[in-house]
Amino acid sequence: MDNVDENLEEAESIGESLATSLKALGLEKDSLEIKRIATVMQDVLVGRADNVSLERAMVATKAEIEKLRGMGREEEAVQLEAMLRAMEEAQAAQVKKKGYIDQWDMRLSRIKAASREEAAIGLLIHLEAELKLNGLEQEAAVLASMREALQNESTLTGDVLEAAALEADDLSRRLKALQKPMMMVEMEELGTKL
Predict the structure, then answer these.
(1) Residue 134 DSSP SS3
(2) Per-residue pLDDT tens for 18-32?
(3) Which SS3 state, helix, strand or coil, does residue 50 take?
(4) Residue 166 pLDDT class (50, 70, 90 cuts)
(5) How far apart are CA 144 and CA 98, in angstroms?
(6) Relative orientation angle of helices 74-133 and 137-151, to the nearest 10 degrees
(7) Looking at residue 141, what is its pLDDT?
(8) What is the pTM of this model?
(9) Between 3 and 191, whose confidence is greater?
């Protein structure tokens, strides 16, 4: 259990105790509100509350702090401030965790894209050599330019990949017209990898 969770548990406990005290003082509405806030803290601990719920609880806590201070209940307001600090820590931890998750999602996307690019480059090299062996130098040159575009990371964009896929489809049709069915199938496969 990390420090944020320990602080949330402690703050939740403070909230439950404070709710009981306020109820005993006849402050039923305040007691219920603090109990609700403590429940949100428990939900954060078990992963049921999102950042929006936490933010709402923080706003309600700030309002309750002001209300208690206005009634001269400074001790209770200070206890609520401790709860608020624990919620702020939890919110910061959630934001940090989301940032890590977003970074990993981006890394995984890059890895997937790189593996597709590597597969496409490998197929391009194979097809380029096959076209040259069959005397189709012009078509091989098209594949060579596609391969170079894929290998040049500084100019590799979604537009470049889309253009390469269109070129692969066009070349597939030309190979079909030239009665090269195996090469046509491989070019269609290339189009799906781009």
Answers:
(1) coil
(2) 999 999 999 999 999
(3) coil
(4) confident
(5) 42
(6) 160
(7) 84
(8) 0.53
(9) 3
Residue type, 158: G
**Residue 119 in tokens:** 């597969």
Q: Residue 82, exposed/middle/buried by CB under 10 A (0-12, 13-18, 19+)? A: middle
Q: Is 173 helix (H, G, I), strand (E, B) or coil?
A: helix
Q: Which two tokens stand for residue 158?
A: 């979604």
Placement of tokens 């933010």 in the chain? 55
Answer yes or no: are the C-beta atoms of 138 and 170 closer than 8 Å: no
* Token pair belonging to 70: 């206005």
Whether the Cβ atoms of residue 44 and residue 36 lie closer than 8 Å to each other: no
Residue extents of the structural domains in the chain: 3-103, 109-193
Task: Fill in the amino acid letter for 73.
Answer: R
Q: Quick one: tokens of 124?
A: 């391009």
The Cα–Cα gap between 167 and 148 comes to 14
The 3-state DSSP class for residue 60 equals helix
Which of left, alpha, beta for 179 (phi over 0: left; psi -120 to 50: alpha)?
A: left
Measured over the CA atoms of residue 8, residue 14, residue 17 and residue 23, the dihedral's sign is: negative
